[in-house]
């Protein structure tokens, strides 16, 4: 009787869990370069990866800066499509400016629909956010049910406590939540990614925060049923006071306005565009200068009015300045094909495999994967869901090397079977050797003598 009660109770628990909507927590540690995982000891993060999946490199979108890439993660769109094209922007029609301290106007965000808005509008679901860029803005007249106004002075612990409280106790239930932290980006700028001593200390602190996150989720009973993605927006490149491009040596500041700064600078000419372009074009051998219409197609960075007429792109590790030295020893924003600009992605939960590693995905691929996990219909996007199928337990996936191996193996088996069939047929159809007829003693005499 006791056994019957236990089995019945277990069945009810499983049935109830099966009816619960899936939950997803998206976490970003700003500026977490992919190869930090190989270059530093990160025991808590490595334990998280062992029990889940790891994408070793995430190719982010150009420009590789904070606001644009965080919005690409949650919309699946290139910057020219979602409209957050830089950390600092200017709209020539409305004369509006956007910056990290002036980012609350929905005008800048309404060109796309982030996943927290889509999730929020579902029946019997809600979203929550702890300072992910854009979550404290009323996008399409919608904010998450629970969110925090951005302030860098708020501790990670307070952010984590709020998020876990909302995930654990809310009605309607929070099924999608985001959590953002400024490190190791801030320290990467200050020290540079090659300062092993300082970055080791900072990354140890970040790893400790990941440990706190996992411990908190386990303590609240969220760990087994919650899907958690840990990722970042970009990497970091080492800079130097010796690698500086001074625009004041090339052209007067009265000729243009610099809308966004190094290492990808947006230039709004005050005089003839061609004159400004020609002077900047020959300014420095470590800086590429593009008219808007000539920006390489691989950047997907042309078709938006917020992209300025002239774009300057410094080579990796070089800094664009205006008649002054740069205080940054690390920076990002460079060409998104550079390995130093790539972040990583790790994930754990019922939606993900355990102990699986994948080489690379695009940052825009994260959005359709998250929509699939949550059962949301994605808005049109630039991501490819098939790129992330191998990470998910409910998807049949086979990668290229495995596919080639299977095809070669099948061909070998078919070849062997064909050879065996041919050999058997040859044996059956071969002429029998001549043998003399043996006459018995009681046979009649032959007719011919």
Percent of sequence in beta strands: 15-25%
**In angstroms, what is the radius of gyration?**
31 Å
**Major sheet:** 8 strands, mixed
**Corresponding CATH architecture of the largest domain:** 3-Layer(aba) Sandwich
**Number of distinct helices:** 12
Helical residues, percent: 25-40%
CATH class of the largest domain: Alpha Beta
Secondary structure: number of strands: 18
Return residue spans where pLDDT drops below 50 for at least 5 consecutive residues. Answer: 1-17
> For the terminal residues, how far apart are their CA atoms?
100 Å
Q: For the largest sheet, list the strands in their spatial order.
A: 6-5-7-1-8-17-2-18
Mean pLDDT: 91
Features:
single chain; 449 residues; alpha/beta; Alkaline Phosphatase, subunit A; Gyrase A, domain 2; eight-stranded mixed sheet; four-stranded antiparallel sheet; disordered N terminus
Write the layout of secondary structure elements.
Layout lengths: L1 H18 L3 E7 L6 H4 L3 H8 L2 E7 L6 H10 L3 H4 L6 E3 L4 E3 L16 H6 L5 E5 L15 E3 L7 H13 L5 E8 L3 H7 L4 H24 L6 E6 L5 E2 L5 E3 L9 E5 L3 E6 L3 H9 L5 E5 L18 E5 L4 E3 L8 E2 L13 E4 L7 E7 L3 H9 L25 H30 L20
Parallel strand pairs: 1-7, 1-8, 2-18, 5-6, 5-7, 10-15
Antiparallel strand pairs: 2-17, 3-4, 8-17, 9-16, 11-12, 12-14, 13-14
Helix pairs in contact: 3-9, 7-9
Enzyme class: hydrolase
InterPro entries: Alkaline_phosphatase_core_sf, Phosphodiest/P_Trfase
Protein name: Bis(5'-adenosyl)-triphosphatase ENPP4
